[in-house]
Design brief:
523 residues; extended; alpha/beta; 5-stranded parallel beta sheet; 16 helices
């Protein structure tokens, strides 16, 4: 029986990665479309010449920066003499056709913007991440849809894909320098294939110079890359990101290294780290994903201020950070050490943080710390007290006709500095976290920034807890009021006309939208 092969589908484009480095590219036109074409050509290291009587702001900048050569005139036939590629982006369709015909006569590839039948090639919707370029073409049928498809593809790529490619490129060069023999090309390819196929991309992206040295040493001594434990990681490359190695059993090395030893034993499996936002004080306001993470945890490392009702849903061991004034750094380091130790044991660790980890919760710092140790935490957001806290106490931070913007600040900056507060805006609600202990200084700061003394101010305490409380006053009186009634931490300051919008006192407020008067209720 005759062998058969698949039939070509037809109707597609021949997709190639055009090497335009140092090639002369001519762009005719000076508008926004031409600017996009110029940028694409510069990304490919082409030598770009632009012919146009005038330039848009972007092309003017590139001309000033000597990124392009600009001829301030209309196109002339002689402009094609040195061009290896021509891109037209002008509104004169007749002139575009004439330029395209000249290019065809000279066998110079040409693209005429918005005139598909004149194009030897089309520009695709592209995603760029370091050396990685992903391009989508709908063959001129649905260019807008191509952008959507490109975004979906880009979103599906693992974090650090471009960096992973860069690091593999560095390692590949090092291996070729160490073992340049042509007869070993298949060995080089097979070894790198195992590395590329079975290591998580996130782990490859975190390779540094020392890691590349370790991998190069493994190649030279014929060790399987799956057995290499790189510096700064916990567990094997696959385990460190929660991805099991799908590869086949690794072949035995063909010979021992100089020390006479074979490959090292595979490192122990790493655990799983989840950074969870505990939200406000009510456990019923935890997200479903947060509850699932807490149920699956082997140990929970919790901030000091996590309310007891939230900790009450945890069934495993809880280790609480003892963060006291002047010792926060030491407590944070203690949590880091405990997390790394538990992860090395292969346990599931939940780092439980008050509110939302990424809203003044040092969540970003913790993600970066664990990445440096070869671990990519899963992040579960939580309700932030900056928005939900006032809401639970009857204060909408935005309200039509009263407040159309919200500014969230911290009263406990890294060096003990007061927050930087902009000038007063009547329709802005100001929320200051971790600030009640410095209330008097905060009030002085607001007065210095022209906040009116009659501005409504509230102290929201322990939002979401059974003993939550709201203390209301004006900017002129809030310090004295809190001195009389005391304060129960944690709390935050809310300043703005939205503070009283749901209270009876707000009915006569000149900032109130009359259409909302029916929403008022007695306190």
């Amino acid at each position: 029986m005759a062998q058969t092969f698949r039939d070509p589908q037809g109707g597609g484009s021949l997709i190639v990665a055009w090497q335009a480095k140092a090639q002369p590219v001519l762009v005719v036109g000076g508008g926004a479309v031409a600017a996009g074409r110029v940028f694409n050509a510069l990304e490919a290291d082409a030598q770009v010449t632009v012919v146009a009587p005038e330039l848009c702001a972007e092309l003017s900048y590139r001309a000033q920066q000597q990124q392009i050569v600009w001829h301030a005139r209309k196109f002339q036939d002689g402009d094609l003499d040195a061009a290896s590629l021509v891109l037209t982006a002008i509104s004169d369709a007749r002139e575009s056709r004439r330029i395209a015909q000249l290019c065809r006569a000279r066998r110079v590839p040409v693209n005429a913007a918005d005139i598909n039948e004149l194009c030897d090639f089309w520009f695709m919707s592209t995603h760029r991440d370091h050396a990685v370029q992903v391009a989508v073409s709908t063959n001129s049928k649905a260019p807008r849809l191509a952008n959507r498809i490109r975004r979906l593809i880009a979103a599906a790529l693992p974090r650090g894909t471009g960096l992973a490619v860069e690091q593999i490129g560095r390692l590949r060069r090092r291996i070729r320098e160490a073992d340049p023999r042509p007869e070993n090309s298949r060995r080089r390819m097979a070894w790198l294939t195992q590395l590329c196929d079975y290591w998580p991309i996130e782990q490859l992206a975190r390779l540094d110079a020392d890691n590349i040295d370790s991998l190069l040493d493994a190649y030279v001594h014929e060790h399987d890359p799956q057995t290499v434990r790189i510096a700064g990681s916990i567990g094997s490359p696959a385990a460190s990101s929660g991805v099991p190695s799908p590869g086949p059993p690794s072949p035995e090395p063909s010979g021992p290294g100089p020390s006479g030893s074979g490959p090292s034993s595979p490192p122990p499996a790493a655990g799983r780290l989840v950074l969870v936002g505990a939200g406000v004080g009510d456990p019923e306001l935890l997200t479903v994903r947060a509850l699932r993470a807490l149920e699956a945890a082997d140990i929970v490392l919790a901030d000091k201020l996590i309310p007891e009702p939230v900790l009450g849903v945890v069934k495993c061991e809880v280790y609480t950070a003892r963060k006291f004034p002047g010792a926060a750094a030491e407590a944070q380091d203690d949590l880091y050490r405990r997390a790394l130790a538990e992860l090395a044991r292969g346990r599931t660790v939940v780092r439980l943080k008050q509110g939302d980890p990424f809203v003044y919760g040092r969540g970003g710092e913790e993600v970066l710390y664990f990445r440096r140790h070869g671990i990519e935490p899963e992040v579960v957001p939580g309700l932030s007290s900056a928005i939900s806290g006032p809401g639970l106490c009857g204060i909408p931070v935005t309200h039509r006709g009263v407040a159309d913007q919200v500014l969230v600040l911290s009263g406990a900056n890294r060096n003990g500095d007061l927050p930087s507060v902009p000038e007063f805006v009547p329709t802005r609600t100001l929320v200051i976290l971790m600030s009640v202990a410095r209330l008097e200084r905060i009030v002085e700061l607001l007065r210095a920034r022209q906040f009116p003394p009659t501005l409504p101010v509230a102290i929201v305490e322990r939002a979401g807890c059974p003993d939550q409380r709201t203390v209301r006053a004006s900017l002129a009186t809030i310090v004295d009021v809190v001195a009389r009634v005391g304060h129960n931490a944690p709390g935050l300051i809310v300043a703005g006309h939205a503070v009283n919008v749901l209270s009876d006192a707000a009915i006569q407020d000149r900032y109130l939208d009359p259409s909302t008067l029916g929403l008022h209720s007695a306190e």
